[in-house]
Specification:
There is one protein chain. With 216 residues, the protein is of the alpha+beta class. It is built from three helices and eight strands. Among the domains are: 88 residues; 63 residues, no CATH class. The relative contact order is 0.13.
Length: 216
């Protein structure tokens, strides 16, 4: 009788211990998921900033050539071609089609744009996800269009990009007014306007004060 009582008490203690451990296990799993989610967000932010920096550099370089024609817009991916799952011995292009909601730079009249991105397997998502709002920079040639890596849309990134395009427009208007149409004398947008003393807190990029030139 005593033996059974001791045995029952031991079983009850083990049962309570298992029940007590479940909430702790759930908390640990939740913390792990939170850490993984935070790491993914940080990685996406780094990728977006890197893509935005490449766009900025290309905008500066675009003043030095007549062709291709730079185009920038806000849009979303409405269609993606099938992924290539074979052995990638050479670069494989995967077609992507954007629906354009607002043109930020250039004189593009169509509401859609189709281009290709190098792909071996799956394009990273994001930014390559259906109906995700994006900022996209492309260059149009006579028979083809090449687009850079899209950037996920935020109001702060849009503000930064608009300051860059405003600097380009300001320089073009100034050059036309002076009668200087020589692309060899193109001016860096960073020299065409004063810069804020502090980088933008959200994007890390400096924005141009529209209509001003940098002080010597």
């Amino acid at each position: 009788m005593v033996s059974n009582t001791v045995k029952n008490q031991a079983m009850d203690q083990r049962s309570r211990a298992r029940r007590d451990s479940r909430p702790r296990l759930k908390i640990r799993m939740a913390l792990l998921l939170l850490l993984l989610w935070s790491a993914a967000l940080n990685s996406q932010a780094v990728n977006n900033d890197a893509a935005l920096a490449r766009i900025h550099k290309r905008l500066i370089d675009s003043q030095k050539f007549v062709s291709p024609t730079p185009i920038m817009f806000i849009g979303e991916i409405n269609w993606m071609g099938p992924a290539y799952h074979g052995v990638c011995k050479v670069a494989v292009s995967r077609e992507v089609e954007f629906t354009i909601s607002q043109v930020l730079l250039g004189n593009y009249q169509d509401s859609q744009m189709r281009t290709g991105y190098p792909d071996c397997g799956e394009l990273s998502s994001p930014p390559f996800a259906l109906h995700l709002k994006l900022i996209v920079y492309c260059e149009q040639r006579v028979h083809s269009t090449t687009c850079f890596m899209p950037v996920e849309f935020t109001d702060e990134r849009l503000k930064t990009v608009k300051s860059w395009t405003a600097a380009l427009h300001h320089h073009a208007a100034t050059s036309q007014h002076l009668g200087d149409n020589s692309s060899a004398q193109a001016v860096n947008p960073a020299k065409m306007c004063s810069l804020t003393t502090e980088p933008n807190s959200s994007t890390g990029f400096q924005t141009c004060a529209q209509g001003e030139r940098a002080k010597p």
